[in-house]
Model the fold of this input.
Amino acid sequence: MDYIMAENLLDQDQQKQSAKDAHVSSLKSSTGISFEQSYIDPEKTSSDLLKHINAFRDLSRESLLAYSRLIVRVHFAPGDTIIREGDEGDSMFILIGGVVRVQASNQEDDQEKSVKLKPGGIFGEMTLLTGSPRSANVIADTECVCLKLKKVDVDNLISDEPKFASLLTSILSERLNSHGGIKQVGKYRLMGELGRGAMSVVYEAWHPTLSCPVAIKMLPHEYLHYPDYKEKFHKEGTILAKLRHPNIANVIDTEEAYGTYFIIMEKLKGKTLEEYSRKNGLPDVDQCVSIIINVAKAISEAHRHGIIHRDLKLSNVMIDENNEIKLTDFGIALLPGDQLKKIENIEGTPNYMAPEQILNQTIDARTDIYALGMMGYKLFTGKSPFTGNLKDILDSQVHQKSPTPGSTRSGSTPVFDQFVLKATEKDPNNRFQTAQEVIDFFDRTAEVKVENINVSTISFVYGDGEILKVAKLVDMISETCKKHDIKAIF
Done:
């Protein structure tokens, strides 16, 4: 069992075909394994072998090379027990030649389940996630060749470079999605995958107490290896679980399992605003105003609890068939007290980021107001106000005034244009100062549709010396109209 050294990682595809044929023939005669029946070529370097394995397929080349340096190539004879049920796990295996049999005891009926794995299969991988005792026997059916990866080596690698923990997330995703794989996270029974993003994978699950489907968001393992992240996660789960608002997706629970954390949320119906606009066409200005008001109500509630969302955008807002709005994804939100700390990483979506966010300056509720204005512009026009490469977009966010929605698409109103301009002011002091101000702004400037109004006219007949009496009467009528929500024009 020799560790594969870096110099052996050079690609050997340039070797002569005759040498390759001789090598494969030698392997056949010595092991009885027919590699030609598999997509795995035993002559490939370890990094090339790994990229054909599902759990490794999406890893960067840097990650593949790092794990290749840890691999030990091992051989087993027919009948060898590679893994024994109940033993302490210390390694995972990747089968690159031969066939193994996985035998697991079924505690429900005291019967043994047996599954055969062929080249490309992995086993013992839960050791890397949990370090728990082996849950099955794995026996070589034929001569076998495996790549062995030790848990202690993986732990040391991830301790030095947390980014390499993406392998653990990939392995767990494979197990959660595979037939006969993991079907339980805490008390929640998994029903399938809902979607994937850059920051997480979301699954559908069944809540046993509420008897309803929920969404479970799995956090990538690498984030748990950065300082203070665990504390932030627990704090986030606790605070978000307290947010109860009709325009915010509710967080129900959190779970810790398989070396990572899960957030359990209500399962939302409908589409993101981005998806909705693509399928149904751009909303008119009245619908845009309604959506902006509802999102403003959501962030107003979050701000009341000291939470800054930091990533308001169309893809983080859901709309259902009844046009009900839900704000989602508080993954990079600033929690109470965070605003006082130095932010190490600039996070957000460039097309929605406020200047102070880009410049790593103080962030507060007005940062979300800026993103809300950018949302309004894109919601109505279907495009962002600033385009180009990343540098151009960020530079424009800091220095260039946003155009009005009406300058890009007809059908806007002066009120909606004014909202976007004020919300996206570069100086936070010139914006709406709170989300409630946005709501009040639209309430004050609401236009009454002509087809829905009735008009009555009152005339006063008075002499030259009675003007003061008429003025007092007008004030009385005006106050009465306000109490009954009637618009009076004098």
